[in-house]
Design brief:
α2 packs across α3. The chain has one domain. It is mainly alpha-helical. It is 64% helix and 0% strand.
């Protein structure tokens, strides 16, 4: 039983994204970066289970897709933050 618990624990991605987990609407993320899959499929993969409750972690290709999606999201956030910077400078100069 302990071996099964460890396999589930090791297949979940959630501990790896714990510091941002509550900041992202994962359903929207899934629809954007995993459009060929359902949101429930994505949530199950995040937890490391398949649709039947068995072990069902992301494949290496899916992990790469998840990683690339997070990088793209980070770049979009950085770009948005950079657009705000000129606004701050104009406010400070008043």
């Amino acid at each position: 039983m302990k071996d099964i618990a460890n396999r589930y624990k090791n297949s979940s991605i959630i501990p790896l994204v714990d510091d941002i987990y509550d900041l992202i609407t994962w359903g929207d993320f899934a629809r954007c970066f995993f459009p060929d899959h359902s949101v429930s499929w994505f949530y199950n993969k995040m937890r490391g289970v398949d649709g039947n409750g068995g072990i069902g972690a992301f494949t290496d290709d899916e992990k790469e897709q998840l990683s690339e999606g997070l990088i793209q999201l980070a770049e979009r956030i950085k770009t948005a933050a950079e657009r705000i910077q000129p606004c701050l400078k104009s406010i400070k100069s008043k």
